[in-house]
Design the sequence.
């Protein structure tokens, strides 16, 4: 969509910003405050009623560790920790296992690939341990159904925390 750029610019504190983007940014703070104010829950104690589209936050001992976004909250949270979850689903656990094993370097060849790491004698058990760890973490979430606001809220939360 082409528009006259003079009509969609807002100037604030010497910074020019698209007015729609500015409105989205202002709305993110309220959602962020709702997210951090939520009493944490564990996966095993999730409420029956959950929003589908949401931002979620994993923390451990009060320390925020991972923020994500999803259009299917219950399924996404489950995918982070079930023992059968693969590297593409249990992404946070995979990162934890990489740190724990020191196998941090990405490889784009079959040997050392994410799929091969899942079966590695050292990495495989570390990945399973990481999924168990994630299953015990505190979870907070806030509903957000608008895709752009969801992306901005994820970035804002990751940056703020």
Sequence:
């Amino acid at each position: 969509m082409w528009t006259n750029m003079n009509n969609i610019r807002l100037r604030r504190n010497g910074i020019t910003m698209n007015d729609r983007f500015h409105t989205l940014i202002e709305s993110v703070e309220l959602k962020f405050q709702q997210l951090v104010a939520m009493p944490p829950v564990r996966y095993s104690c999730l409420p029956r009623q959950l929003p589908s589209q949401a931002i979620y936050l994993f923390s451990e001992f009060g320390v925020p560790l991972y923020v994500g976004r999803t259009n299917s909250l219950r399924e996404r949270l489950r995918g982070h920790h079930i023992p059968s979850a693969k590297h593409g689903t249990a992404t946070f656990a995979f990162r934890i296992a990489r740190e724990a094993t020191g196998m941090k370097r990405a490889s784009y060849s079959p040997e050392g690939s994410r799929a091969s790491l899942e079966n590695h004698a050292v990495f495989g058990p570390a990945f399973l341990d990481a999924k168990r760890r994630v299953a015990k973490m505190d979870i907070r979430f806030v509903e957000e159904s608008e895709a752009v606001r969801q992306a901005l809220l994820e970035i804002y939360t990751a940056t703020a925390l």
Q: What stands out?
A: The chain has a mean pLDDT of 88. The chain has six helices and five strands. Strands lie at 9-12, 15-18, 54-60, 63-70, 138-143. The first strand starts at residue 9 and ends at 12.
